[in-house]
Amino acid sequence: xxxxxxxxxxxxxxxxxxxxxxxxxxxxxxxxxxxxxxxxxxxxxxxxxxxxxxxxxxxxxxxxxxxxxxxxxxxxxxxxxxxxxxxxxxxxxxxxxxxxxxxxxxxxxxxxxxxxxxxxxxxxxxxxxxxxxxxxxxxxxxxxxxxxxxxxxxxxxxxxxxxxxxxxxxxxxxxxxxxxxxxxxxxxxxxxxxxxxxxxxxxxxxxxxxxxxxxxxxxxxxxxxxxxxxxxxxxxxxxxxxxxxxxxxxxxxxxxxxxxxxxxxxxxxxxxxxxxxxxxxxxxxxxxxxxxxxxxxxxxxxxxxxxxxxxxxxxxxxxxxxxxxxxxxxxxxxx
Length: 335
Fold this sequence. Notes:
By secondary structure, the chain is mainly β. The protein has one domain (about 5-330): Neuraminidase (6 Propeller), CATH 2.120.10. The chain contains 3 helices and 29 strands.
């Protein structure tokens, strides 16, 4: 698929209701810690009710805090025994009181209750080519299944496992194949995806392409939503201009996404995108502005990861260079 055809596809698809970029003022969260240690490179933020779960870069623990920044407990530790990580937490997924986390080296999935009580663990046949780590929601969790991205060589986007580790289904056909050889040679990770479950559907967001897939509980594709907006198109063009001679992998188009109350929210560098799933339209786009420690004025901040509390408060992370690991902001359009 040529660059011209790719961009034509984007520009001929879904149009946002508004091209306006709203300014969202965010505020730092001061962490209340008994220890000086906290992961300063945060790779995932999730919540269950009022408790917020944080995964750092290759950290062997999951940190649990409240919205005021008080650390409540940690889950897991470094080691080689049950419930321990050989190096660190590579990815995590949460459903209700169940917390799944993947070990960096062993490709094992560990399962806890949210209070930190260890349950069990099992190996998963995931792909070494799937870039876990920087992106949240790499795998999705429902009350029955865990869905993991797999190698495009399988012809599928993901595989579904039961809580006991049984592989029960292949999910989704790859979007890019041999006919897209030029594009895949440039960006071989175009089929990599993030997954979220929001009953009764599974949502799949492509990491480096403006496309959402929606599946039912039998893993049948219901619809595909292509995202079009000048800012998305500009960022996608930058990815197409990626120079493999300078960097080992192309940057992601989207870092994180959540599904809440009929809307899909996704972060793209310093921008938050709100998609009405039923109408298949972009309803709002926000840019993040805040005042970093030691800075007199406000500046635009890069936010990678986030979660949305039940009252619409967003907990954010990403631009730790501004003196804070976590930020917060009420979501104006939350319903």
